[in-house]
Amino acid sequence: MVRLFTALLCFTTLSLAAVEFVPLSAVKLTDGPFLHSEQTNLQYLLALDADKLLAPLRREADIKSNVESYGNWENTGLDGHMLGHYLTALAYMLSATSNEQIKARLDYLLTELQKIQQVQHGYLGGVPGSKALWQQIQQGQIEADLFSLNKHWVPFYNIHKTFAGLRDIYLQTGDKRAKTLLLNYGNWLKNLVKHLSPQQIQQMLLTEHGGMNEVLADMAVIFDDNSYMQLAKDFTELRILEPLLKGEDKLTGLHANTQIPKVVGMARIAELSGDKNWLKAAEYFWSLVVEQRTVAIGGNSVREHFHPKDDFNPMLNEVEGPETCNTYNMLKLSMLLYRQTGQSKYLDYYERGLWNHILASQHPEHGGFVYFTSMRPQHYRVYSKVDQGMWCCVGSGIESHSKHGEFIYSLDKNALQVNLWIASSMSTPEIKLHQQTLFPDENSTELVFDAASTLNLELRYPSWAGAVKVWRNGKAVEVTTKTGKHILLAGPWQQGDKVKLELPMQLSLSPMPAKPDYHAVLFGPLVLASRSAPFKNESLRFVADDSRMGHIASGPTCPVSAAPLYIGDTNNFLANLKRLPNQPLSFSTGQGFLQGKPELIPFFRLHDSRYQIYFQHTSLDGWQQQKQQQEQQDKAEALLEQQTLDKVYPGEQQPESDHFYQGEQSEAGINLGRHWRHSKSWFSYQLSHKGQQNLTLRLEYFGLDGGRQFEVWLDDKKLTDVELKSGLGPDWYSVDYPIPNELLPKNAGHFRVKFVAKPGSIAGGLYQVRLLKGSGLEY
Q1: Which of helix, strand or coil describes residue 240?
Q2: How many CB atoms lie within 10 A of CB 603?
Q3: Sheet holding 768-773, edge to edge
Q4: Domain spans of the chain, in order of start
Q5: Which band of pLDDT confidence, cut at 50, 70 and 90, is reported for residue 5?
Q6: Inter-CA distances, 70 with 112, 163, 402, Å
Q7: Angle at the Cα of 263 from the Cα atoms of 262 and 268, rounded to 5 degrees
Q8: Phi/psi at 378 (nearest 5 deg)?
């Protein structure tokens, strides 16, 4: 398997690459948190039911299934997406561990997929009603919205996962069954779009479609067929590519993880085609995200969208912070860019995101995965349950924790690079060694050669490290290399040779972008955080249920004004941090804190608790001035949340899909950083009233949309007629509409609110929809 994959790796990356990573199959984790993560994930994979994952595909092929599919996202429109993730995760896990149970599971799935594909004439998907959908697409009948294509939830995003899964099985294991399945699927896709114009394909790409361009570029090499490279370029959305080529930042307001896989594809196409402009576009995107929109853990986005880069207030106020899928894809992009450029900033970011977001997003005991990692002080996270949570971040999670060995070692010309300090062994025909380390609890690592080698050794000198020390077979080596480079140790090497590297880890502060009074604390590359327990005897649910929005930590929020904060100079803050003896990487915060004295530990070790990552630093006078205003804001926010039974942010993908959006002739967009939706016909959402009565519907409008007329319906009953006020300025305002109890359904806990345009007018735009307990007032 190792020899085959090594050959494939060379086959799928052109010589344009500056660096090649050592194949996953040649690296074995031997100790430490990443080995624990890998083994925990292995059990999670085996606990999933292959037949339940196959059920949506069997249903679409009219093949009887003895079990029903999983619930949650797997039976509400994104049916089948988890199978694709599962295929990739199994491929990585088999390559990383050679586990026989994983191999048997993969063999079974490939056999069953062959049966399905034979019936489906190449197609392999669980998209509900797929026969009619793909027939419409083939005939050029395209109705695309941000997350809906012909009224189906992101179908290309869905099937991309299966394309990628088959590709990964072939590249990681060399299984020719996967290659044949992938080829047949590719022929199906070619036939689907062969009569579509470039404009029609671009119209389809308005709807989230995952990394279709990336997998098609890989297929061009796998099958030595340049038509797939052309198709990869056709499946690259010009609306995103063209501003990046011009060096324009158009990201604000966009759904973050819709865009990142597209740019991963751009980088892959650049690597295979040698197009330096596309590479430059991908590098520019990376800089816009990492250097301007990323927080300390390596994550980005609020409620899944890129907020304005000069306004990080949403990051502190909202509970739906960075989405794990985003970082999963940013690591993929960083790996591609490092492979092509060799720039150390991609290594630094990869390490930061891997330790502090990816590793931290997996529960170390039951293996559940986190969707949103809130940056709001003293909030918390919820984790998936293996048979219930079927979110996108579960799919990317089972992939991430199957491939921790892929970035540790790389080859640069005639040198082996050591990039990460993770206990592991690696073996290729040119070099064999193992790495012994207790990092990060100890700041050193030792490399031991298991065979003679002529290759040079290059040790990464990370930007966070102090003055490093190196010993070769016990003798000190003078280090003249600067941070951000690799320390070169020339070969040859004999079996048993040893290299020891000491990496002094220092405490530092990382300010939140555009919020310089808020800082995260780092020790080396590790983000430190504190546990919080602001409410006595509270009982939080840390494991999500199978509800559509179970992935959101929707429990009570803590007032921002009550969070621990530091009064004084930031230099004094660092000086007051003291490492606690006889405890693994724990720090006391000393003097200067108000509203608590937090104890800091690595965030990746903090689970099942409220927590705080960012701490405000201010003067005593400044704090006293801010506190009253913040308390008033907290009080108003808490009162509104207590009154709120349900809410929708129109125009934002996940809130709309979570509320089962429907509509015709509807459009969504961004105005002054806020998302909206309107329609010349109608659109609707499902709201949950939880059996309560005496309710109010609050709708938020924009002042310059005056004169628009529409009706508001609850199920089949009209609530009110609306005519938006004219003569208002460019600002938002809300109107409350009391709901008579007789309009509420008697036996259901939810109803559908529908906005219907009057003839010749427009329904909306709506910026927020809230269902409130009790009455409200227009303001």
Answers
A1: helix
A2: 25
A3: 644-648, 768-773, 695-702, 732-739
A4: 31-195, 410-439+444-502, 507-632, 645-773
A5: very low
A6: 18, 21, 22
A7: 100
A8: 65, 30
Architecture of domain 645-773: Sandwich (2.60)
Residue type, 703: G
Question: What string of DSSP letters covers 392-436?
Answer: HHHHHHHHHTT-TTTTSEEEETTEEEE-S---EEEE-SS-EEEEE
Position 16 scores a pLDDT of 55
Return d(Cα 369, Cα 748) in angstroms, integer.
31
Global pTM exceeds 0.85: yes
The 10s digit of each residue's pLDDT in 299-312 is 999 999 999 999 99
Two tokens, residue 120: 């489906």
Pair 760, 712: CB distance under 8 Å: no
| CATH topology agreement for domains 410-439+444-502 and 645-773 | no
Taking only the tens place, the pLDDT of each residue in 462-494 is 999 999 999 999 999 999 999 999 999 999 999
Tokens at 382, concatenated: 């919820």
Kind of pairing, strands 614-618 and 587-588?
unpaired
CB-based contacts of 107, cutoff 8 Å, min separation 6: none
Q: What sign does the dihedral 532-537-542-544 (CA atoms) show? A: negative
- b or e along 69-104 (b: 16 or more beta carbons within 10 Å of the residue's beta carbon)? bbbbbbbebbbbbbbbbbbbbbbbbbbbbebeebbe
Q: What percent of the chain has pLDDT over 70?
A: 97
Which two structure tokens, joined as six digits, stand for 269? 């196409």
CATH of domain 410-439+444-502: 2.60.40.1180
Do residues 323 and 289 lie in contact, with contact meaning Cβ atoms separated by under 8 Å?
no
Farthest CA pair distance, the chain: 85
Tens digit of each residue's pLDDT (9 = 90 or more) over 126-152: 999 999 999 999 999 999 998 999 999
Residues 684-724: pLDDT tens digits? 999 999 889 999 999 999 999 999 999 999 999 999 999 99
pLDDT at 216 over 90: yes
C-alpha torsion angle, residues 219, 221, 226, 228 (rounded to 10): 10
Q: Please, are residues 767 and 702 in contact by the beta-carbon 8 Å criterion?
A: yes
Report whether pLDDT(534) > 70.
yes
